[in-house]
Structures are given as structure tokens and as C-alpha cells.
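Can you make up a protein sequence with its C-alpha cells?

===
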Amino acid sequence: MIKMNKLVAWATIGFAIAIYPATGAQAADGAKVFKKCKACHAFGKNGLGPDLTGIVGRKAGSIKYKFSKALAAKADEGLVWTEENLDEFLAKPRDFIKKTKMTFAGLKKEDDRKAVIEYLKTK
């Protein structure tokens, strides 16, 4: 019985590691990739782009900032910045929200997008 419990415990740990890779390392990688975003975005204040503090899970357009009409419309539809929505937006912002004011072309590499999202989750 004890051997079986240990086996189940180790299997569970192994499964968790496989599903949830080292997000700390991923967030550190995301901090490096985020340097591409720093020209417009910051944490704790608006810049050329809106403040990204707490963006993951936040309702779009819910902070004080002059958003584009296109983003405001998406916000009115109930857009929330989930990890999935952020991933799609970061891949090609203008495909996700037509007429967005964001001029950045996007992050082509999925690993870069995932890393940035992990980084954003720490802020």
C-alpha cells in the first residue's frame, strides 16, 4: 500500500512537471522578449500604450486610457485578456482587432508569446 501511494505521488509530480513546465524560467525569457514592447508599454502607468499591470484575466478596455474604437467595441462585446486571447493578439494584433492602434506586427514564435504571457502574469 505504501509503495503504491509513493508510486502515485511520483507519477503525479511527473505529470505536473510535464504539463506545467518551469514557468519561472519561461517568465524570465518573457522579460527578455518584453523588451520589444517597452517602447510603448510599462507597468504601473500608461505610456504610448496602456499600462499592462494585471492584464492577464482583465477585461479589455477596463483601465483609464484612450483606446481605439475597435478595441472599445471588443471590450463592449466582453473581451477578456485570457492567456488564449493574448496569445492570438500577440501573434497578429491587427488580425485579432481590426483597426487597433497597436502598430506592432506581432510575435511570430509561439514560445516567445507564451514566455511574454508568463511574464505578464507576474506583473
Observations:
- DSSP finds six helices and no strands in the chain.
- The helical segments are 2-19, 23-33, 69-76, 83-91, 93-96, 110-121.
